[in-house]
Amino acid sequence: MAIEAGDFKTGLTVMVDGDPWQVLDFMHVKPGKGAAILKTKMKNLKTGSTQERNFNANTKFEAAIIEKKEAQYSYESGGVYYFMDNETYDMYELDEAQVGFNKNFLTEGMNVGLVFFEGECLTLSLPGKVEVTIVETTPAIKGAPSTQSKDAVTDTGLTIRVPQFIAQGEKVLVNTEDGKYAGRA
């Protein structure tokens, strides 16, 4: 099925240069002269790299058929992450490069989405926000303004900035896109 660049939507997956790419962001630009162009930010689902690319608005692309399966994170050993399919109980392995920044949010037993292309497990997708526990932080400073923040370490090993009132042992929400504090859980 052919998809024109002018029909791009966030999250759409298309084939570019033989690889599946996902559209992260796009903007239509109509210069004073010439044809309209589409400025995109895209992620290569095979390599995990992100690029900004420009296309003519009437360029056609083939749709990349991506399959997602629900799986449960089991454990990590030697840089390999193991996931169990929730329906068939098959085990899938992803290396550290495939998991990437997402490793900072994985907790044992967590449900994730595994992304497949032509039968090959490429990466995983997480919800927009995940719940983590603060395992290390300094006590709140009395009289500190509410806008002041401090460092805190989560149970997954991620260091984030949190408001002064957050204490050790509290559960907080973290944005999985940028790893920033998103509120109390």
From TrEMBL:
Residues 130-184 form the Elongation factor P C-terminal domain. InterPro entries: Elong-fact-P_C, NA-bd_OB-fold, Rib_uL2_dom2, Transl_elong_fac_P/YeiP, Transl_elong_KOW-like, Transl_elong_P/YeiP_cen, Transl_elong_P/YeiP_CS, Transl_elongation_fac_P. Keywords: Cytoplasm, Elongation factor, Protein biosynthesis. Residues 68-122 form the Translation elongation factor P/YeiP central domain. It is found in: Cytoplasm. Pathway: Protein biosynthesis; polypeptide chain elongation. It comes from the Bacteria. Its main location: cytoplasm. It holds the Pfam family EFP. The keyword Protein biosynthesis applies. One of its GO terms (molecular function) is translation elongation factor activity. The keyword Mitochondrion does not apply. PANTHER family: ELONGATION FACTOR P, ELONGATION FACTOR P (EF-P) FAMILY PROTEIN. Involved in peptide bond synthesis. Stimulates efficient translation and peptide-bond synthesis on native or reconstituted 70S ribosomes in vitro. Probably functions indirectly by altering the affinity of the ribosome for aminoacyl-tRNA, thus increasing their reactivity as acceptors for peptidyl transferase. Belongs to the elongation factor P family. This is Elongation factor P. It comes from Absicoccus intestinalis.
